[in-house]
What does this fold into?
Amino acid sequence: MTTEEKKTTTKERTFFGGVRSMLLASIGALALGSDEIEAVVNKLVDRGELAEQEGRKLLRDVLDQRKKEMETSTDRITGVLEDQLEGLSHRMNLPTRADIKALNTQVAQLTLRIEALRQAQEQQKEESKTSDSA
It folds into this structure.
């Protein structure tokens, strides 16, 4: 493994480790926040400062909002991750799906041309045999 490959591998590990940490931190914050919010709402209901129905609605609204925030964060992280992976695959000179699709199309076209040439060659051989026989 060359020094450049080692640097790339180290960068990959660092990058993926960072993304993993961000995701775990986000999930942990959401879970911890949900438990704390539920505890606060339950205390308000127990003290009579909030009706039980209002407490459930408030809790549901807050948790829905947190879920939306989590989805937004996940979408943003996913976008960053996709950009990083695209850059990494470019640096590693890996083919994209479009590259592979284009190559498959070229192979199919060449296969058709080869088959046409074989048929033409066989036809010439048959014509040659027929003319030699006559």
User: Anything to note?
Assistant: Residues 95-134 form one domain. Residues 3-47 form the longest helix (45 residues). The chain has a mean pLDDT of 78.
